[in-house]
Amino acid sequence: MSIAENRKAHFNYHLEERYEAGVVLEGWEVKAIREGQVQMTDGYVVIKNGELYLIGLRINALRSASTHITPEADRTKKLLMHKAEIRRLVGKIEQKGYTLVPLNLHWKGGRVKAEIALAKGKAEHDKRNTVKEREWEREKGRLMRHKVSSSPKD
Predict the structure, then answer these.
(1) Quick check: helix, strand or coil at residue 60?
(2) Those residues with Cβ within 8 angstroms of residue 98's Cβ, 6 or more apart along the chain or in another chain
(3) C-beta neighbour count of 40 within 10 angstroms
(4) Can you list the positions of beta strands (E) in the chain?
(5) Exposure on the CB side of residue 83, measured as CA atoms within 13 A
(6) Gap between the Cα atoms of 13 and 71, Å rounded
(7) What's the whole-model pTM score?
(8) What dihedral angle (degrees, nearest 10) is formed by the CA atoms of 48, 111, 103, 38?
(9) Is 10 buried (19+), middle (13-18) or exposed (0-12) by CB count in 10 A?
(10) N or C: which end of the chain has fewer CB within 10 A?
């Protein structure tokens, strides 16, 4: 079941490969996620010392959060993946100019997982083509609906 989605990722990047990673969260964050207090708009993934970190994932604390903790909404979250996978990602990012983009957060077996993608940024003309294709698909749907509804009855 999907929790939050980064819709801008599909528009701004060509997505090459997808990976699933665990997310290290605190207790108040899990409770807030269950209540839907999460936003994933301008998130990105960085690699530091051979570890993945998710930046830009905002989890707003609930009003009923405990008094002995100080919830930080924009805290950097660590992502969990196998070392071999991380090494392979580092190699691809350094060589070919790729970046890591978070696509969504979802539940899997009671745990929060992040789907990340190896992506390359789109140029401005690619974005225009994406918009043009989307509008054409929408117009095609309208035309088909109109044609079906206005066809003469026997």
Answers:
(1) coil
(2) 16, 92, 118, 119, 120
(3) 22
(4) 2-5, 13-23, 38-39, 44-48, 51-55, 58-59, 77-80, 99-108, 111-121
(5) 2
(6) 32
(7) 0.70
(8) -100
(9) middle
(10) C
Q: How far apart are CA 75 and CA 93, in angstroms?
A: 24
Q: For the purposes of burial, counting CB atoms within 10 Å of the CB of 139, is it exposed (0-12), middle (13-18) or buried (19 or more)?
A: exposed
64-102 per-residue burial string, b: 16 or more CB within 10 A, e: under 16: ebeeeeeeeeeeebebebeeeebeebeeebeeeebebbb
Amino acid 149: pLDDT: 63
The span from the CA of 71 to the CA of 101, in Å, is 25
Question: Tokens 């998710």, residue?
Answer: 54
Contact 47, 86 (CB under 8 A): yes
Q: Quick check: helix, strand or coil at residue 31? A: helix
